[in-house]
Amino acid sequence: MITALLPIFFAVLLLGLPIFASLALAVFLAIEFFGTTNPVIVPMRMFTGMNNFSLMAIPFFILAAELMRIGGLSDRLINLAKALVGWVPGGLAAATVLSCLFFGAISGSSPATVVAIGSIMFPALVAAGYDKRFAIGLIATAGTLGPIVPPSIALIIYGSVTGTSVGRLFAAGLLPAIVIASILIAYCIVYSSIRGYERSSFPTLREILVAFKSAAWGLGLPVILLGGIYSGVFTPTESAAVACVYGLFVGMVVYRTINLRELAGTLRSSGLISATLLLITAGASAFSWLLAITGTPSQLAGQVLSWTDDPFQVMALFNVVMIVAGFFLDSASAIIVLSPLLQPIAAQVGVDPVHFGIITLINFSVGMITPPVGLNLFVAMAISKMSLQEVFKACLPLIGLMLIALIFITYVPWLSTWLPSLIY
């Protein structure tokens, strides 16, 4: 049955069915023609996959991100980033990366970060004389910081399917996100120095303080959320509801940029995005359930460990597997399908589950900028009016930098485990 499952899945996917339908239909057909279980269990397992308290945080975080985006926060965060790093060579490009890091700490979503920051910064970068390919490649890649920096929707999904503490995962994502952002900013400085792009003047202290004051309400959100989680005031799931109330207050009362009509549209769009993501989660849950009941994880563990039990080699192999899977699956589906298979094997060779979660997330973040299903590429296409091929070529040098960061973070576990060990 398992031998037939993957070929059926890829065949159905090639027919053009949505990813959630491909996952669920593959499970249904494998059970119907090769199994002994009644296939009526498939929709039951899909419902069970969504009936998870941790997953309630997803629609709330999506709504909070939309509220903050339409509330005018993107402009304020960009102005702050310009004040902080705009004076270095390639300062506008460096500010783009920093803006993605700031907005990612609010949205927790990669495509949302690309939309919010890219729609403003791409025209600004082109107008300032930056090459179009460099600009769109940078925006699409920097958008991957969204799910890595806490709070993160993808880490919530990983925590729910592996039983790992979401709070520990949130703490673990901070330093790796800063490392990746630093590498991208360094690339911007070197590239811009070679190309001779102009830099802004060094800001005065007053300009920096004004930018901080303007963006303070937005920057306060991750502080409140993470502070509330780690102090025990509320759970990660409850923090998502707090984020919605905070985002609504800031947009309607503080910034006064959200009216009732915009709010209705935001609720509608957030509901559609949430439904799409939860449907994918449901289909992937049925898929991973079938793998689990057939003993595939233990068989796979035995096979891998028969080759080697060296953590270095096992993690190198898993990185390759996850990178390839990211070509064909969106990050939510890939996390739900592969994490229950690979994480127990990683644990057997001494890899901390929190550290493995960050490695998993970075791998699938790379998948967001690789075809054929890299969502960031399609969002970047809409922003830049460039073809998929052009956007992907623009991302290639930055994908190389992401892979360097992945290797560094994989083999320096301290980056992922130090903060959680301090807090918990």
TrEMBL record:
<keyword id="KW-1003">Cell membrane</keyword>
<feature type="transmembrane region" description="Helical">
    <location>
        <begin position="215"/>
        <end position="234"/>
    </location>
</feature>
<comment type="similarity">
    <text>Belongs to the TRAP transporter large permease family.</text>
</comment>
<feature type="transmembrane region" description="Helical">
    <location>
        <begin position="137"/>
        <end position="158"/>
    </location>
</feature>
<feature type="transmembrane region" description="Helical">
    <location>
        <begin position="50"/>
        <end position="72"/>
    </location>
</feature>
<feature type="transmembrane region" description="Helical">
    <location>
        <begin position="240"/>
        <end position="258"/>
    </location>
</feature>
<keyword id="KW-0472">Membrane</keyword>
<dbReference type="InterPro" id="IPR004681">
    <property type="entry name" value="TRAP_DctM"/>
</dbReference>
<keyword id="KW-0997">Cell inner membrane</keyword>
<keyword id="KW-1133">Transmembrane helix</keyword>
<feature type="transmembrane region" description="Helical">
    <location>
        <begin position="112"/>
        <end position="130"/>
    </location>
</feature>
<dbReference type="Pfam" id="PF06808">
    <property type="entry name" value="DctM"/>
</dbReference>
<feature type="transmembrane region" description="Helical">
    <location>
        <begin position="395"/>
        <end position="414"/>
    </location>
</feature>
<feature type="transmembrane region" description="Helical">
    <location>
        <begin position="84"/>
        <end position="106"/>
    </location>
</feature>
<feature type="domain" description="TRAP C4-dicarboxylate transport system permease DctM subunit">
    <location>
        <begin position="8"/>
        <end position="415"/>
    </location>
</feature>
<feature type="transmembrane region" description="Helical">
    <location>
        <begin position="170"/>
        <end position="194"/>
    </location>
</feature>
<dbReference type="GO" id="GO:0022857">
    <property type="term" value="F:transmembrane transporter activity"/>
</dbReference>
<feature type="transmembrane region" description="Helical">
    <location>
        <begin position="270"/>
        <end position="292"/>
    </location>
</feature>
<protein>
    <recommendedName>
        <fullName>TRAP transporter large permease protein</fullName>
    </recommendedName>
</protein>
<dbReference type="GO" id="GO:0005886">
    <property type="term" value="C:plasma membrane"/>
</dbReference>
<dbReference type="InterPro" id="IPR010656">
    <property type="entry name" value="DctM"/>
</dbReference>
<keyword id="KW-0813">Transport</keyword>
<comment type="function">
    <text>Part of the tripartite ATP-independent periplasmic (TRAP) transport system.</text>
</comment>
<feature type="transmembrane region" description="Helical">
    <location>
        <begin position="357"/>
        <end position="383"/>
    </location>
</feature>
<comment type="subunit">
    <text>The complex comprises the extracytoplasmic solute receptor protein and the two transmembrane proteins.</text>
</comment>
<keyword id="KW-0812">Transmembrane</keyword>
